[in-house]
Design a protein that fits this description.
With 306 residues, the chain is mainly α. It is 71% helix and 0% strand. The protein folds into two domains: 90 residues, no CATH class; 172 residues, Farnesyl Diphosphate Synthase (Orthogonal Bundle). It contains 16 helices and no strands. α4 runs antiparallel to α6.
């Protein structure tokens, strides 16, 4: 088993689950790219490393995708070959590394624009490269960016407590927190109150906007592109359901971690696939002679029975 496949299977993520829809070769390619994303993220999050070591590890991955160093056997070699064989634009991959690098010494975004700049690096750029690896054309880029924003905003809302507790990170914009009278200590102390709910609902509305933007862009794509992006569309359905759960539950993110079970994930994968099928158009009942005659006959019979 390739190292990338092992990393993807062990991650048990929503994206890894949706990849089962892809043909074998594309599934292998996406497993390689996912493994790259997973490793880069883990370099920043795994305990036991000093900041200097984390930066050095990210520096090596930049050198690998830029083909500036000899890759070791395993995942490094797989990723280097992926970039070379698909002739990937490595700019989004470098943006991802830069975004993760920023989490080594995290700074809370001041504005929504700052938050979206971060989300572009760690999520939208992942979507851009994923779309290419899955076989979509460049026309899919606006869809990938909008969906990346939406998914990242859901992650931030869902993981407010965990990000603060485990990593000391605050992703909700400082300006938005001030607008609703929520402080960093409120999050640290997990104070669940009206102000916190209003703040989270405010950010959820932004996520909804990007889900809507993504769907609008998706419907503009060719059937070929929509077919290529079935796993991404399934991710959209999964994460929008998580968002809806939080909304319905009034954002009790300090008490539980919202998720979707595997049965529903399978259903969303099927729904995403069915959404790419162009259904045949059928004539209306009025256009069918049988129903015209039947209707006339019924009318005559009713008159005779009166």
């Amino acid at each position: 088993m390739a190292e990338s496949d092992s990393i993807t299977r062990n991650a048990k993520s929503n994206l890894a689950f949706t990849l089962m829809d892809l043909p074998a070769e594309k599934r292998m390619r996406m497993a390689q790219f996912y493994a790259f994303c997973r490793i880069v993220d883990d370099i920043v999050d795994e305990p036991g490393m000093r900041a200097q070591e984390r930066h050095a590890a990210l520096d090596r991955w930049e050198a690998i995708i830029e083909q500036r160093c000899q890759a070791s056997d395993g995942i490094e070699d797989e990723v280097q070959k992926l970039v070379s064989e698909l002739q990937l634009d490595i700019a989004p991959m470098k943006e991802l590394i830069a975004g993760c690098r920023g989490d080594i010494s995290p700074q809370q975004p001041k504005t929504r624009e700052d938050l979206l700049a971060y989300a572009y690096k760690v999520a939208a750029c992942v979507g851009i490269t994923s779309a290419t690896v899955m076989g979509a054309s460049t026309a899919a880029k606006p869809y990938a960016i909008a969906l990346g924003y939406a998914l990242q905003l859901v992650n931030i809302l869902r993981d407010v407590a965990e990000d603060c507790r485990k990593y000391g990170r605050f992703y909700l914009p400082a300006d938005d927190m001030e607008l609703f009278g929520v402080t960093r200590s409120d999050i640290q102390e997990q104070r669940y109150n009206y102000r916190m709910r209003q703040l989270l609902a405010y950010e959820a509305a932004l996520a909804e906007k990007f889900f809507g933007d993504a769907e609008e862009q998706y419907q503009k794509l060719s059937v070929e592109d929509r077919n290529a992006l079935i796993p991404a569309q399934a991710m959209s359905l999964i994460y929008h359901t998580i968002l809806t759960k939080m909304q319905t539950d009034e954002y009790r993110v300090f008490e539980r971690r919202y998720s979707v079970n595997n049965f529903r994930k399978l259903w969303f994968l099927l729904r995403a696939r069915l959404g790419t099928v162009e259904m045949p158009s059928f004539p209306s009942l009025a256009d069918w002679g049988f129903f015209k005659n039947s209707s006339s006959s019924d009318s005559a019979t009713n008159k005779q029975n009166k």
